[in-house]
Design brief:
There is one protein chain. By secondary structure, the protein is an alpha+beta fold. Among the domains are: 106 residues, no CATH class; 64 residues, no CATH class. It contains eight helices and eight strands, in the order αβββαααβαβαββααβ. The radius of gyration is 33 Å and the shape is elongated.
């Protein structure tokens, strides 16, 4: 599926002729044309307006569009929060919009920022920064690309910047990733159906004779750890505290229990 924008001369062909020709190229290739309405048509994120001898464009947003971006108060890197507004502002500045349409788009961007708790001053400064960078960024970019190395940091709080600031005056640039995403939240948790004693965790051993309790945490499975205790006792090797207790007091083996 793809979007195709076609400009044709009505004196040379018709919309029906173009439609029939494209659909006859291949049986699996079919188009569903949308024709202009009142000399304008919406194509992707643009509204294309046909004038007598030229085309004009405006920015188009679907009626279902919601003005939601990363909230300014959320725990995300400021670069991530700025991303949506950088896109909107760059599009507004680079498209050949009329003065009135550009002013209207700027008010829309400010309104989106306001709805997501962004201070208007930050958005205004971001616009000025993008305008300033556009004038001298092309010449500097080629020189910096070859020498720049990037490192990715997981962003858990603003304290992470204390680490990235150490590389501020070097050729190493920091990029942030955030694990607090919708896909991470909605991802189903993996279920471990293995037997309970084949898992790691906190466990408790209780001496059969004196009810002495030995409680520890292990990264290996509980069955393997219990067998180690038994092996220490059988070999008279007091390598673990539980084995030492059993050997010193000549008690029977204990029973293992998982502590959740």
């Amino acid at each position: 599926m793809d979007d195709i924008f076609i400009i044709y001369g009505t004196t040379r062909t018709t919309a029906d002729s173009i439609h029939n020709y494209i659909n006859s190229i291949h049986k699996c290739l079919q188009i569903n044309p949308t024709h202009e309405n009142n000399t304008q048509i919406n194509f992707l994120d643009l509204c294309i307006i046909r004038k007598t001898n030229k085309l004009k464009i405006d920015i188009y947003r679907k009626p279902t569009t919601i003005d939601i971006a990363i909230n300014y108060l959320s725990s995300h890197p400021i670069e991530h929060k700025h991303a949506a507004y950088r896109y909107h502002i760059h599009r507004m500045l680079t498209l050949p919009l009329t003065k009135e349409r550009r002013a209207h788009e700027w008010k829309t961007i400010q309104n989106i920022a306001r709805n997501n708790n962004f201070p208007n001053k930050l958005i205004t400064n971001l616009k000025q920064q993008i305008q300033c960078n556009a004038t001298h960024q092309k010449s500097d970019r080629k020189e910096n690309i070859n020498n720049t190395k990037w490192a990715t940091f997981a962003y858990y709080s603003s304290k992470v910047r204390k680490i990235t600031n150490l590389f501020k005056h070097t050729d190493i640039k920091g990029a942030f990733k955030n694990n607090n995403t919708i896909s991470q939240i909605l991802r189903p948790k993996a279920t471990n159906n293995s037997p309970i004693y084949n898992k790691c965790g906190i466990h408790k051993l209780t001496c059969k004779t004196c009810q002495h309790v030995y409680m520890r945490q292990t990264s290996r499975n509980l069955k393997q750890r219990y067998q180690e205790h038994v092996r220490y006792i059988r070999n008279s090797n007091p390598q673990s505290a539980f084995a030492q207790h059993t050997l010193n007091n000549q008690h029977e083996y204990g029973t293992i229990e998982e502590i959740m």
